[in-house]
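Per your request, structure below.
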């Protein structure tokens, strides 16, 4: 800022930008930093920042979304909280839902949230006021997505609602209710071609976005499906059979089955390089997408990192090139920063050693993958530790600054995690062995139904058997039928 303070320096800077020599110096620097960040992902080198959400009643952070300035999350205590990315302080609490906030999404103007109270609320990002509440679904709203003036919601009532967003989303009009799943619809995603939905009935259904006509069903998971993401031709899904499946949406073929989680796969995201999954086993796994799409690669080469730090079930995560942001039943949001992960540091932030409220832990981070020691400290809204190193090769303007990051973690592909104080559901049968196709035969993944009802007037068959014994804490409504 001081350099740019005078017009002379500004002209000099503009002249440098026009010089080929400037880019000759800059390009190797960018290449180096890209390689450094990729190495941090593979080696599990990251710094950790912790937000303790301090829920007023029941603990749990069900959903989140972030950008460079803020994190917005939905909690089990019926509130939506807004956090400043730099200070990690709560700047706003939105109240109105009478049930857990299970899903949300925001843009520059609007937050849309869904709750176990069965309502969808629309909030003004400028005033933080609730603009509108809809009561279309008769049970919990489990997931939602909006884009291109279309909003798609799904519910425990087994239906999917497709809405047209009017006047920048300040008003919505129901276009169609899609019925065909035989259990709670846990997740939806869509683009301008397809709407994709997944359910506790163990199926993924594909619908035409424009006409809302049914297209096909993807069959392969052996238990209910809890999460998915759809992008271009690829669908990646996670299930209570503990597996992740990759699908070609155009032909309905299962391309790959990934196994490694020890419990229900609750959240999953992918980009052009990686798949990141979170599970009820408390772990976050990073998978090599390109290796996963090669049929001959084994699972050991596909799973490149296991991140263990949450002390409860991982409910939601998002990530980009530099970081993962995850939330859990332990009432925390973790920011895993791979941009600064290779800086020499000796301190890290930690979570409570027990489930007691507001306890925090600081520990010394070993340079090896094991032997992390924990000790108690005072409660804090954001647990941090101070850096003691300087990095000689920072991004220097070539890459986005993620802000000051404090606390660090040594790489841990495997680690001994404190015993999870939360109850773990018991599966009725053993996990399925890894298979590259549906157990019914090599072509059974092509289970395309000739017809499916597409309006709310159609009947629905009896609900399928629950895939997992209900945990008392979730028996009533919050977690769908996965």
């Amino acid at each position: 800022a001081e350099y740019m303070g005078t017009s002379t320096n500004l002209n000099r800077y503009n002249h440098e930008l026009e010089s080929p020599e400037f880019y000759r110096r800059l390009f190797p620097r960018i290449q180096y930093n890209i390689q450094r960040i990729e190495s941090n992902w593979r080696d599990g080198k990251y710094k950790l920042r912790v937000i303790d959400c301090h829920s007023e009643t029941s603990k749990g952070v069900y959903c989140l979304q972030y950008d460079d300035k803020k994190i917005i999350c939905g909690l089990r205590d019926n509130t939506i909280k807004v956090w400043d990315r730099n200070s990690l302080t709560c700047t706003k609490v939105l109240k109105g839902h009478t049930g857990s906030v299970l899903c949300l999404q925001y843009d520059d103007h609007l937050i849309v949230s869904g709750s176990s109270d069965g309502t969808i609320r629309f909030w003004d990002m400028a005033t933080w006021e609730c603009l509108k509440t809809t009561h279309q679904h008769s049970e919990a709203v489990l997931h939602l997505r909006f884009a291109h003036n279309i909003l798609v919601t799904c519910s425990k009532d087994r239906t999917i609602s497709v809405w047209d967003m009017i006047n920048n989303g300040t008003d919505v009009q129901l276009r169609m209710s899609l019925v065909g799943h035989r259990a709670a619809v846990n997740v939806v995603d869509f683009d301008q071609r397809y709407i994709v939905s997944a359910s506790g009935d163990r199926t993924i259904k594909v619908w035409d976005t424009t006409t809302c006509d049914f297209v096909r069903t993807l069959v392969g998971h052996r238990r209910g499906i809890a999460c998915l993401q759809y992008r271009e031709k690829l669908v990646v899904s996670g299930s209570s059979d503990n597996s992740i499946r990759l699908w070609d949406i155009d032909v309905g073929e299962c391309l790959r089955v990934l196994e490694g989680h020890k419990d229900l796969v609750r959240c999953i995201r992918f980009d052009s390089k990686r798949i990141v999954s979170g599970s009820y086993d408390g772990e976050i796994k990073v998978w090599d997408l390109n290796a996963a799409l090669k049929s001959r690669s084994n699972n050991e080469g596909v799973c490149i990192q296991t991140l263990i730090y949450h002390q409860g079930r991982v409910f939601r995560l998002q990530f980009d090139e530099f970081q993962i942001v995850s939330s859990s039943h332990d009432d925390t949001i973790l920011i895993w920063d791979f941009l600064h992960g290779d800086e020499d540091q000796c301190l890290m932030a930690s979570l409570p050693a027990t489930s007691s409220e507001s306890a925090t832990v600081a520990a010394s981070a070993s340079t090896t993958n094991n032997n992390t020691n924990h000790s108690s400290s005072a409660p804090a809204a954001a647990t941090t530790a101070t850096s003691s190193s300087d990095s000689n090769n920072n991004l220097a303007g070539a890459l986005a600054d993620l802000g000051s990051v404090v606390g660090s973690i040594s790489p841990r592909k495997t680690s001994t995690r404190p015993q999870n104080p939360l109850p773990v559901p018991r599966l009725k049968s053993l996990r399925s062995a890894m298979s590259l196709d549906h157990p019914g035969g090599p072509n059974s993944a092509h289970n395309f139904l000739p017809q499916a009802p597409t309006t709310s007037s159609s009947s629905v068959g009896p609900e399928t058997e629950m895939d997992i014994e209900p945990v008392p804490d979730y028996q009533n409504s919050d977690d769908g039928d996965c």
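The two ends are 52 Å apart (CA to CA).

Regards,
D.
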